[in-house]
Amino acid sequence: MPDITIKIGAAAEAAEAEAAEKKVQTSIVLNARKTLEGNVVIFDHDMLDIVIIPNKNKILAFPKTVMGDHVYNAQDRLFDFMNKRGAIKLGSIQGGNIYGSIEAEYPDAASEGVDPVQVVLLTISKFLDLERPYFGEVEDHLDDFKDYLTDPEEEESTELGEVPHGETKGSLRPGWIRTPYAHTRMYRA
Description:
This protein is an alpha+beta fold. The chain has a domain at 24-132. The protein has 4 helices and 6 strands, in the order H-E-E-E-E-H-E-E-H-H. A 6-stranded antiparallel beta sheet has the order 1-2-3-4-6-5, covered by helices on one side. A hairpin with a 6-residue loop joins strand 5 (94-95) and strand 6. It is elongated.
């Protein structure tokens, strides 16, 4: 049978004030949805979708579009960050059943009154805050590279008429036979 504590008078008011202070310690804002199963899907990361599965105590991270080294590195950073903060079981990190996904288990709370899902959400939010400055960096680099190739600076480009022409340029010499066995004749003495 659970213990029931009754506080009367000033002690009750102090207990209510203490409970009111403990209710909201911090708040976070995430682009997340709750599924019919009760899972929480977080869409904030540029490369990953992160799913918290409360009935199995699992966190699943899978790529948004295409799997690659950059996505795996983001997944690795996520689970490394969560492991260093004690939010997951280290030995539980493994590949998931969705292509390119990685999953990990989070433990039940050792203390009463601590919701493990809230701890996981807060930890993921802190990870996303660290990653947010780098989200557009890859796209900006690719855009800059495309601009460099398609619209170069004046000193890095020439007009077609400025290139001097010569009779023989490059590796294809006129009159040479281009077959695999024809070049063996060149090495004869």
